[in-house]
Amino acid sequence: MTRYLYLARHGEATADESGLTEAGRRQARLLGERLRDVPLAAIHHGPLPRATETARLAAEQLPGVPVHACEPAGDYVPYVPARDELPAESADHFLGFVDQFPQEEVRPDLAKEAVARFTGPSDGIRHELVVTHNFLIAWLVREAMDAPAWRWLGLNNANTGLTAIRYAPGRPPSLMFCNDLGHLPEELRWTGFPPEMRA
């Protein structure tokens, strides 16, 4: 049967990433309100405080939906490409970006587990929300589009930007929408992006 996977980046975090800013808390509540009419079976979230708090605040708007912390929904680098996989003109940029992360944050094993746990058709029609981080959303969108493994790089999501992917038997995954900010007022949109990249 069909699975509908909703992916949301956590709300705007404090500078020390110990939780959410007031704007981030508002974003999380509005995310929950946005999903009130979706028959969610579960909310999954990564273990870090910013994802945990976002999931909790969203869930307050969604009574009765169970909330689960899980490591595959966490914040990690899903894949590090080799230079020859990358376009020559952007190889230095992308390799410089991934090189800034310590080796223990490179977790292709968790990325594989996330794909197995959250994607593909289900036993019945199922709607699930994963409150996570930018890299995992990019990885799962790349996976749905059957793009090269390196192509998670350069896919970015704003805080509480909402993405939905449909997995139906006998069909390729369908990206229904990506980084949708329609639930946020203008002043809460595009946080998590450098100022020059905000729409």
TrEMBL record:
The lineage of its organism: Bacteria, Bacillati, Actinomycetota, Actinomycetes, Streptosporangiales. Keywords: Hydrolase. This is Probable phosphoglycerate mutase. Pfam families: His_Phos_1 (PF00300). PANTHER family: PHOSPHOGLYCERATE MUTASE-RELATED, SERINE_THREONINE-PROTEIN PHOSPHATASE PGAM5, MITOCHONDRIAL. GO terms for molecular function: hydrolase activity. It comes from Nonomuraea maritima. SMART domains: PGAM.
